[in-house]
Design brief:
This is Outer membrane protein beta-barrel domain-containing protein. It comes from Vibrio ziniensis. The protein has 165 residues and is mainly beta. It has a single domain, classed as monomeric porin ompg (Porin), CATH 2.40.160. Helices cover 7% and strands 65% of the residues. The chain has a 10-stranded antiparallel β-barrel. The radius of gyration is 17 Å and the shape is globular.
Amino acid sequence: MACCFLYPQVVRAANFNYNFFEVRSAVSPETLGGEVNTTINENSHFIMRADTRFDQGWDGAVGIGFNGPINQFMDVYGQMMLHFVTYPQEEEEDDIKGMYELNVGSRVWLTNQIEAHVRVGRIDESSVFIGGLRIHSTDQLSLSAEARNAGLWGPQFSMGIRLNY
């Protein structure tokens, strides 16, 4: 009998879409980036990301992630990523450096159109922290504002637009 009461929450936990294309811009330092996420099955997804600092420093990453419901308003997710990074000549070496990232995060609905999200983890020897709000104007389109430290270029403030498919 208890399973009957829990089952609808599991089914409704698909309130978060893991099929999206996102473009973001950040300041301090200035970066431009994009991300594509696509569902492999109900609880896993494939991720591709790219960010650039415009002055020949860039970060490209690919990986897989898991996602699962906590309840009908909250999801938990994690990602394993492999990064390929170049730095501007004045900061570090000019060669491509490979790094790994492990992270875990959560998404929660604050209202029917406002989502809060947080992600923490490690990339190589640096910490990752990303937190923010996403406003869903339609089922397909959302805007985000984030405080982020993706582990490579220090703390940043970013804004993004996400297209769900």
